[in-house]
Design a protein that fits this description.
globular, single chain, 11 strands, 5-stranded mixed beta sheet, 4 helices, mainly beta
């Protein structure tokens, strides 16, 4: 028996990977299988897409906050609330970019349950690459498919 087209897309060839870089103690290259090492969260979402109307999907994956904390953001422990100056830039394979503030995902502030999805509607994203999922967004513009890079930047420390 042959595989379904969806199964063939997820098992043939190497898994897509993305880069975690920037102001991190432990920059890394991660794949969807790597993301499965973190606790998995489920998000059933409905968001508006400018080209195809309302989309309904179920995603699973770790929280962006958990993955980035594991990479060791370079927060200055001597500066109270230093983490609030950090930005997170995400780039997809199609060139789509989005920028988040650390405060959006921080449990002490916005606490947004932003996911790095490992599955979309129960289909593994191994070959397509992880997807940024913002369940709190009404519009799907900040959903990034096929993540290629996540850059953490705390470069605003020079402001006085």
């Amino acid at each position: 028996m042959s595989q379904s087209p969806a199964a063939a897309r997820t098992t043939a060839g190497p898994a897509a990977e993305f880069v975690l870089a920037g102001d991190l103690e432990r920059p890394a290259r991660l794949t969807v299988p790597d993301l499965l090492a973190w606790p998995q969260h489920r998000a059933e979402v409905a968001f508006e897409c400018a080209t195809s109307g309302v989309r309904n999907h179920t995603f699973t994956g770790p929280l962006l906050h958990d993955v980035l904390m594991h990479a060791g953001p370079a927060f200055d422990p001597a500066r109270r609330k230093d983490r609030l100056r950090f930005l997170i830039a995400v780039r997809g394979a199609d060139g789509h970019h989005v920028l988040l503030s650390w405060a959006e995902i921080d449990p002490d502030f916005g606490r947004a349950p932003v996911l790095l999805a490992a599955t979309l509607d129960a289909t593994p994203l191994d070959r397509a690459g992880s997807q940024l999922v913002l369940p709190q967004d009404r519009c799907g513009a900040r959903y990034i498919s096929g993540i290629e890079a996540i850059m953490v930047d705390g470069g605003y420390g020079g402001w006085n």
